[in-house]
Amino acid sequence: MELKKEAAETPVSLNYKRMVVSSPFQKLIKTKKRFTLFTTIFFLVFSLLLPVLAFYSNILTKPLIDPFSWGWAFAFAQFFMTWGVCHLYMKKAAEFDQIAKNVLETEEKEMERDGR
Q: PANTHER family, from UniProt (predicted)?
């Protein structure tokens, strides 16, 4: 219900052309792209490193603690990495949402100032 209420309060005739070229919006898009790119690269490298190391090296077969090898440690680390990335994304998404809300509020103030 909260989303519908906010959507109803937002003016329909926002000047999207002006908003898209605004500095805060451009900064938001640049920051989101950078975060998404680096997070995706990290996730893919970390995830694909397990099969690569397992098939092409003997590093993961070395014992870590008596019955467990480094392979098991790396495999379990992937769960923690996934949870960590999810947690980081949730925090960053909240920041991005706040910046987007500020951009919309700024555009609404600009429209009021222009007399629309």
A: INTEGRAL MEMBRANE PROTEIN-RELATED, MEMBRANE PROTEIN
Q: Name the token pair of 107.
A: 């555009």
Is the pTM here over 0.85, yes or no? no
Pick from 2, 88, 3, 81: which is nearest to 47 by CA? 81
The DSSP line for 98-113 is HHHHHHHHHHHHHHHH
Residue 69 bridge partners (DSSP): 63
Q: What is the dihedral of CA 39, 40, 41, 44, to 10 degrees?
A: 120
For the chain, the domains span: 23-106
Question: Could you tell me the mean pLDDT of each successive run of 10 residues in the chain, 116 residues long?
Answer: 55 72 90 96 95 92 89 94 96 94 85 72
